[in-house]
Design goal:
Strand content: 15-25%
Radius of gyration: 20 Å
Distance between the termini: 49 Å
Shape: elongated
Helix content: 10-25%
Order of helices and strands: EHEHEHEEHEHEEHEHE
Number of helices: 7
């Protein structure tokens, strides 16, 4: 278990030394500046946890994926790096012996929903249970692109902790989230994901009715308008009757309500 913060030369020299002496390393956390140490991590074949933060952040690129995907025991990958556009364009997962076979927890951000979708589809892990993603794009993505992302998330049928957010607002419909209703969701956080016009009792009840084990539900936008009752359909306290009846384990709810 190793965690350290250092300048560029210190990080490189330390990891170089560890490559020959710490082959059984299982957990690695690094905070540094302007250098991508991910290719050096390939030496630690028993690594289960990799937390890499760089200031300023570095992009997740083709080399990053090629370095981490073959690690057979990597369970958790957390980074502040932004996934580059077309990161997986030239990567053929079928040519790898394994491709992220053990991921349980994944936290990413970026503006290329297609790259995130491809990564989720290509991962061979059957154990992914927690996924966090922040959309960094300035424009609403196409409905079909969002739908494909949701489908790629839903193929991981053990996923029960989901956090999706957007800096500018995706503004999608609840219908685009339909595949998520098949998951055994316990915790879900949707921030700036669903369009304001969709935030109603009916939509929230429809989305959550198949999640009897739901413990935490967050669905809010930072631009929900304050307007007369006649022109908005925000959830009302009536939605809590649904939660009380259908989600007995629910302990945390965050909604903008009338």
């Amino acid at each position: 278990d190793c965690s350290f913060e250092a300048e560029v030369h210190g990080v490189i020299s330390t990891l170089h030394s560890m490559q020959g002496q710490c082959l059984d390393l299982q957990r690695l956390s690094v905070l540094t500046r302007t250098v991508d140490i991910t290719p050096m991590v390939t030496s630690f074949v028993r690594l289960t946890y990799f937390n890499f933060f760089c200031n300023p952040s570095l992009p997740i690129n083709e080399l990053t994926v090629k370095s981490l995907a073959p690690l057979p025991h990597l369970v958790e990958w957390v980074t502040n790096g932004c996934m580059e556009k077309d990161t997986l364009k030239n990567i053929d997962p079928s040519k790898f012996d394994v491709f992220f076979p053990s991921l349980n927890t994944l936290s990413l951000h970026g503006e290329d929903l297609g790259a995130i979708t491809q990564l989720l589809r290509s991962s061979q892990s059957s154990a992914l249970s927690k996924f966090t993603y922040t959309y960094d794009g300035r424009h609403d993505p196409k409905r079909s692109v969002v739908r494909r992302l949701m489908e790629s998330i839903a193929r991981h049928d053990r996923l029960d902790d989901l956090f999706l957010s957007s800096k500018s607002g995706i503004g999608t419909s609840f219908a685009n989230l339909e595949t998520l209703t098949k998951l055994p969701i316990r915790k879900i956080r949707l921030f700036n994901i669903v369009a304001n016009r969709e935030l109603s009792n009916e939509s929230i009840i429809w989305l959550t009715q198949s999640w009897p084990d739901l413990e935490s539900f967050y669905c809010c936008n930072d631009d929900t308008p304050v307007a007369p009752q006649a022109i908005r359909q925000l959830p009302t306290p009536e939605v809590f009757r649904h939660f009380a009846t259908n989600c007995p384990r629910l302990v945390h709810v965050s909604l903008t309500i009338d």
